[in-house]
Amino acid sequence: MTLRENYLARLKELLAAMPPADREEVLADISEHFDAALREGETEEEIIARLGTPESIATQYGYAAAAAPPAAGAAGRQNRGVGAGRIFGSIGLGFFNLCAGYPVLFVFWAAAAALAAAAVSIGLSGLLYLVCLCLSPVFSWAQDSLMQGFPLIANLFTGIGLVSFGALACIWTVKLFVVCIKVGVRYLVWSFKWIFCMKTKKEGDA
Amino acid sequence: MNIQFKKGALELCVLSVLCRKDCYGYELVSDISCHIDISEGTIYPLLKRLKDEKLVVTYLQESPEGPPRKYYRISDRGREYKDQLVAEWLDFTKKVNHIIEGPSEGQKGRNPS
Chain A residues with CB inside 8 Å of B48's CB? Predict the structure, then answer.
């Protein structure tokens, strides 16, 4: 492989996480730079010396040299820095999760559970009300538990209203639960990914 | 020269060159690196960002010496942004110069000592 091919291959490797179309454009730009400079009479060594390392270019594009082979020199030092940052970051994230992240998730879940309980009991109370209404001509205790001094139609509507409001609230709470699950899962996945170094983009960028 | 100075000024330099003429990558890089000592590779990420921010646009143009080249042209938005950067730069360097040179005789009198 020539120096130029080596250089472009290394850059491609470092930009592996970049969207493919963008990456091809970057490689084409650098390749065009080589063509133009060669035509001006520069050698590949000179061109590379002036371009800087593929690692430094990838860093400028926002992709740190995390996939670098454990070669000595600047790249290695940079990796150690990123590693230390990640360890402190992970500890920080762990504390944040314990103090804020998990409690907030728990509060959301508790609120959703409370709303679900409320919805179910409203619906059930409506059903019971209707049952009492049906039994009221026969049993006096059923008669006693209805609203006194109202016509039959008012009692009927009260029961039906309670049942339908309960059903509607149940549907809402199901949706709320779905949102809670999605948010919770996403947060957990994100925080685990972060801690276990699955994403290496945008490190050492500052 | 200090690397942080260069980083900050590079965007301004690129936009200023493009204000005068459209350039292909190598041409732009050469224009700047003959005045300022930089890693030439740093200009390409900068150009991509300027393009993403629609401050410059690109087009392909045939070259007499080989395959078509990618040219960069500054947009209207880019010109406005460059004017703003130039104004900030001039204002900033003027103030820094004042500080470096220290207060002149006329200004000294204003400060109680």
Answer: 22, 25-26, 61
